[in-house]
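User: My advisor, Dr. K., asked me to get a structural model of this assembly before our group meeting. I'm new to this, so sorry if the format is off. These are the inputs:
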Amino acid sequence: MTPPKRSRPASSNAVSRTPLNAKWFQILLALADADRHGLEIVREVERSTEGAMRLWPGALYGALEELAANGWIREVEPPADAQRGGNPRYYRITASGRQVLAAEVARLERLLHEARTKIASPPSR
Amino acid sequence: MSTPGPFLSRLARLAVSLYPASLSRGHEEQWTASLLESWRSERRRRPLLYPLSASMLLAIDLLTGHRIAARLRRRRSRRSRESSMHTLLHDLRFTLRSLRRRPAFTLVAIVLLALGLAANTALWSVVHSVLLRPLPYGDPDRVVTLWSEWSNFDQTWLSMGEARLYRDRVDAFEDFAIYFEDSASFDDLDRPERTRALGASANLLSALGVEPQLGRGFTAEEAEKQRNVVILSSELWQRRYGGDPGLVGSTVGIEGERYDVVGVLPPGLDTPQDLARALHADAWFPLRFPEGTVELEHGGGNHGYLGVGRLREGVTVAELQAQLDAHVVRLAVQGVYPDTMGFRVNASSAADEVVGGLRTALLLFLGAVFMVLLVAVFNVAGLSITEGLRRTGELSLRRALGASGGRLVRQSLLEALVLSLLASGVGAALAAGALALFRRFAPPDLPRLDGVAITPFALGVGLLLSLVAAVLFGLWPALWTRRLANPSSRRATGGRGGRRARTLVTTLQVALSLVLVIGTALMARSLAGLLAVDPGFSTREAATFRVFMPTSYFPEAAEVVAAYERLLESLRSEPGVEGAGAVRLLPLASTMGDFGVRVEGYEPPPGEHPSAEWQSVTPGYFDALGIALVAGRDFDARDRSDSEQVVIVNEAFVRAYVPEGEVLGRGVRLGGGGEHGGDDERGWTSIVGVVADVRHDTILSTPKPTWYRPHTQFAASTGFVARSMTVVARTEQDAATLGPAIRRAADAADPRLAVGEQRTLSEVMASQVAGSRLSTFVLVAFAGTALVLATLGILGVLSHLARQRGREIAIRMAVGARPADAVSLVLGQGVRMLAAGLLLGIAGAIAVTRSLSNQLYGIDPLDLSTFAIALPVVALAGLVACSIPALRASRVQPFAVLHEE
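Assistant: The format is fine. Below is the predicted structure of the whole assembly, which you can bring to the meeting.
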């Protein structure tokens, strides 16, 4: 008799990829609300990290290639209203990219919650 | 956003070019823009330090980019490996589908290859079981056998005195044991059973390096005192005593006495000499083999023992042989062995003893069977080349659609591999069947036959051969398929290349077939020669069986003689039996030693010791076996033990020792040296008859001088009565039906008697030619297969050729060529191919048949007439194959063909 197989939770694959590389996290986050091209991503990351993370081209485009290879983002046609010129590449987060992102956010939430709890309760002597 | 200065822009473009091209290619503009923005951002943040910090950050980012690019490369190559696996699976599916679409080709290819592979697997099983499987001894490489050699006797026994010297004085031996061949009649359990037995020295088991399965070996004391102890074979223990472990330590009944069973041998254990002749002994009795050495008498003494030695660690058979030679020279100098005797003692490894004689024949078969496989492979290669030609269009199309040349070759190889593996599966099954046939038809005296089975080793060889075959018939077509399918090459070129390949293949097939047919014809003629050899007796219907009259039932010689008379009398009175007689050793069923003789009026040249083979026979023996009486009379009731001492000799005896004068009435004294014949007067006998020569040891032995004494008087010459004799009963009916009559006759002598070796005379004869018959049978099968395959090959290639040139032929005929021209066009091509093949085959046969020479009897391996017979056989088959497509070509309807085009 073999025990019945339990199906793995859908997010388990995403969870297994956390903690997420900080650059990947920021890029996925930058794409979470809109399709963006490379420079827009750089600017969005710089804005949301308050200038703490500046993506140079090697890190940026390298990360984009890897995220695409992971199937978490994909290149899309530029939106109709986009300014032409420079032939920029636009990226969109995929469903599995969103799962990974959500898993990382959940992890950070747990971390944050623990941190708050620790700060709130003074050490017992 | 300020536009960057030209200097900065150029610097940025330079920096971008330092990034891995695999990331930035095609997007340099955005990279430059991104770089400039990072640069500006850094300048905003650190207005003073920025040239330094930006350069550092750039350097870090360059490293990052390269690291990521490397990571992606690794990932891609892994992915592409996976995808090539995927392509392979796809190709495999494609291959299977494509083979299913061509069932005729697939089936024919598998059958052809399976036949070739089956023959190879079966034969490798035999080779493995017989030649390569280690002998059932401890450290079998160290076990050796010894045989004496005399002029006129290549292989005879050892004497007790010699054996003691070898044991104690020959340093190469760690141990040396002897035994003699005997028989035993078990008479307990109300079921008399006669078996072969050995009288074995106590150290025989340790010389063989074997422990008994149960119990122990003989002790020196048991051998010295000749106790009633016995070691049983595992087979007898199982068969007769149901494998009862309690038998060891209890007793069994043998010839009216009780014997203690001290041990049971391991299953399948026999001495090397027995294994070599497929003989088996069911009981071992202790043989005295006294310690210490004795002075050898002239000639070394009585030779009747077989020797088995165990070499010291690290000593070779050649070293042993050198020591033995030196030893014999020493004894010769002392006058033990005069030069004229030509005495030698020969050592051989147990493996050589057992299978040495078979090695050549088996290697020969392996060669033949490999040729059959090659022919089959060539046929399949030819088929797939034709297939390739037919599929030129498809392949070119696939090539044009982007299939790489490598991929087409791979698919072609894959197809070959799939066919080969399927064929090797079918072949293994066929091989099992072939082995069953082999076991059924193999000569019963083939060593180690019972162990012959399909072995994993042979299956491995079969698989390996199938892979070799796959490469052979897959790669060749594949390589030029590739060339053919190359869109830049013109179709006609490929066609010609393919035709050349097929022509070559067919030529080789014809050549190989011719080699096999010539080899087979040689073997067949040799067999015919063997069958035509006159053994000196008639081989009409007769039953033979062996009986032993033990001392415990018949203590006196006269009682033995009387018992045999009762037995023969009873047999002669059976309906259907026309005559019966008994002999000490039946020709072609035993080996014979010799005995010294002195013949009245014959003065041997100095150094020569006249000797003759010695037989004891009852009246009626010569008649029963159909041995012609040339002069004088047969023995009859007149020849009693106390009447005149008489002897019958054969023609070889007369030629050797009575070259002139009256033969009948001449005196012969048996036991030339005086040690056997008693004193001078009593030893003399008188010749009363001369009979025809009989070949004794084998069908090819030269008849030696032989004397026959009446059974009643035999003891007077030798000092003992022949207790063990073979009875021959001649009949007009089927000799195999005489079983009940034989038992009744044995009962008439004594109901306790066991009957052994019951065979018809034709079975005795057949066993002599069984080896040769099997070889011929196997080779006929191989050569026949090869010939059929080659014929099909010619047929295939010419048919294809005729079809290919159908348009040319049609045009020629349209402009006035006659059908005969079309015939000669196709035929010419075929005949050229055939002629080349035949020439090549003759050359091959000359090279190969020499290795047959010691398998052949009475025929030269380069026998011209055999070549002259084989050549037309193959040529005729080839011409038939040529003529079919040629005739078809002549019936071409020009306009129909041209219309089709």
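One thing worth pointing out at the meeting: Residues 95-120 of chain A form the longest helix (26 residues).

User: Perfect, thanks a lot.
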